[in-house]
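Chain A, query sequence.
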Amino acid sequence: MTDDVEMVVVSRDPALPYSKGLMAQALMATGLSPERAYEIAAAVGERIHDSRQGTITLRGLEEIASAVLGEADGHATIARFRKWQSLTMLARPLVILVGGTTGVGKSTLATQIAHRLGISRVVSTDTVRQVMRAFFAPDLMPEIQYSSFDAAAGLRIPLSDWTDADEAGFIEQAKSIAVGVNAVVDRAITEGQRTIIEGVHIVPGFLDRSRWHDAVVVEIIVAISDAERHRSHFYVREWETDGIRPLRRYIQGFTKIRKIQDYILAQADKQGVAVLENDSIDKTVKAVMATVLDAVSEHAPSAIPSRGG
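Chain A, predicted structure.
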């Protein structure tokens, strides 16, 4: 089958008319910004209207993408679009794990990815911790009663002189929260639900990977290397939440937060987990989408064969 006759599916129901929104969502799944995705989707709509047909060939979509984005970016977008088609054919549940220290943009990134992939289930490890707090008395599990960078206050055993208390407290907390995160992953796999789990407690090596064989699990760590840029995120977050997440508390704990990032990055290096530098949310979203689509394409049959295939 050649590109000239390969039809791009823009709706799961062939009886429905062309949807610019569905096409734009599919294009955003390739990593395009919403503006660019809607620009191409609108041009596709015009092409379909002019041709009086309800479909467009992959070659036609590539021509439009190249006209809007430029030839090189247009070709790259179509290559990623092919992988997105694999996602629609994926029989296994997809679970995306987004980790990183406090303030690196995990929640924003998870929301962006969920929108692009049409995933409705996004779970924070802070939510998991809050649920566990309701079931375990402070005396039984004190490490989960504190923020990740204050978890040293919950340590119940004496530490050696060369052990870092902040790191040790975070490790104890993350290990405890991992029990709940494993349960969320298990439920997603059992129910066949596409799920994103984000939070500081997604630490490479702490989760039970033996449970993942029935799913496509993509594990990503987000980081901000530059300390001042990282610090600035807390100023923005206080403004965006009207002080619900007060700046002073995070600035006072900033050294501890950075220390936790160092530990998470060391674990990612040991476990071979991808680390993405979040210097631009648009670039990071694009990188995450590429990582996810690469993983999906390895586990699902291609809906559209490669050129010349």
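The longest strand covers residues 216-223. Residues 90 and 300 are 5 Å apart (CA to CA).
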